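stage 2 :: seqdesign
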């Protein structure tokens, strides 16, 4: 008698045979560790330390990636900027996916008038300019976020320099996540509608299982592939959106940085100091390609219709 395996064991076995996906996974882990743990190392300099005498210097043992026009260490700025870009991309995407998956799954499974009402609301939001909505929403939640920063500093006793760079990004997380769920809601709705009439769902209904159990335990695991691939594609898109908002003064505040801001600064000085553009672009492009390859691999690995090897 053949021993059964779970969906996740099967998925990991298929993923482990996908070399581009595995390489991409290790690249992402390396970039995450480098950005979030690297700045804690003693040899990594402060990203805000200005040395005008060493402006736009090339790579050296003291400055691995060189320096920017203010003499700040580009290596540390790339790492700290990666923290911001990756945090915004991952957190905002997680918020958007959670809202969109639940919303789309309910609409697709319920059908009828409820589905019509929920999707007409999505259509209305789609008709409005996305960037303007994000800007307006971020302005609305900016004051509560500032009040939360002051409250947290009073209660925790932490220094403002340690708290403010994180809490000031809360409006950005909420704004992008609360508006960016529309596409994933449509995707999940279509997938749920395609799956809900299949035999295994009818079997679950005949067993007397509740609608919520059928939806979240039986239907959603069978549409995880499109959700994963959308998530991996949404992260770099949201990172780009963060750079646009930061450029408009609604995102990362100076002297903070992100990959988007560093790429913009490097593009402005590309003819005189191309390294300012090369290193942030290298990290951003590597993250983008790794997410795409990993998303393709996860889509194939998590497809429940795939035959066992």
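stage 2 :: out
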């Amino acid at each position: 008698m053949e021993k059964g395996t779970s969906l996740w064991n099967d998925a990991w076995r298929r993923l482990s045979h996908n070399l581009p996906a595995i390489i991409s996974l290790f690249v992402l882990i390396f970039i995450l560790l480098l950005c979030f743990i690297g700045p804690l190392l003693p040899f990594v300099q402060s990203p805000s330390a200005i040395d005008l005498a060493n402006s736009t210097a090339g790579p050296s043992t003291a400055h691995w990636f060189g320096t920017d026009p203010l003499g700040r260490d580009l290596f540390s700025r790339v790492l700290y900027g990666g923290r911001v870009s990756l945090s915004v991309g991952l957190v905002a995407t997680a918020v958007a996916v959670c809202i969109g998956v639940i919303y789309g799954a309910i609409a697709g499974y319920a059908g009828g008038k409820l589905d019509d009402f929920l999707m007409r609301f999505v259509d209305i939001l789609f008709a409005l300019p996305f960037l303007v909505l994000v800007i307006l929403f971020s302005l609305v939640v900016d004051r509560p976020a500032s009040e939360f920063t002051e409250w947290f500093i009073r209660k925790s006793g932490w220094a403002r320099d340690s708290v403010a760079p994180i809490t000031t990004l809360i409006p950005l997380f909420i704004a992008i996540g609360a508006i960016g769920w529309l596409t994933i809601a449509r995707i999940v709705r279509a997938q749920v509608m395609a799956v809900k009439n299949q035999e295994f769902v009818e079997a679950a209904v005949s067993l007397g299982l509740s609608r919520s159990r059928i939806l979240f335990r039986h239907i959603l695991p069978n549409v995880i592939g499109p959700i994963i691939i959308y998530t991996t594609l949404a992260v770099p898109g949201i990172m780009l959106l963060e750079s646009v908002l930061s450029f408009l003064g609604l995102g990362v505040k100076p002297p903070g940085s992100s990959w988007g801001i560093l790429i913009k600064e490097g593009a402005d000085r590309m003819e005189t100091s191309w390294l300012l553009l090369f290193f942030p672009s290298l990290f951003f492009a590597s993250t983008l390609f790794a997410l795409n390859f990993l998303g393709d691999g996860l889509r194939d690995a998590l497809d429940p219709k795939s035959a066992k090897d």
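stage 3 :: structure notes
- The radius of gyration is 23 Å.
- The domain at 7-41+72-301 is CATH 1.10.3720.10 (MetI-like fold).
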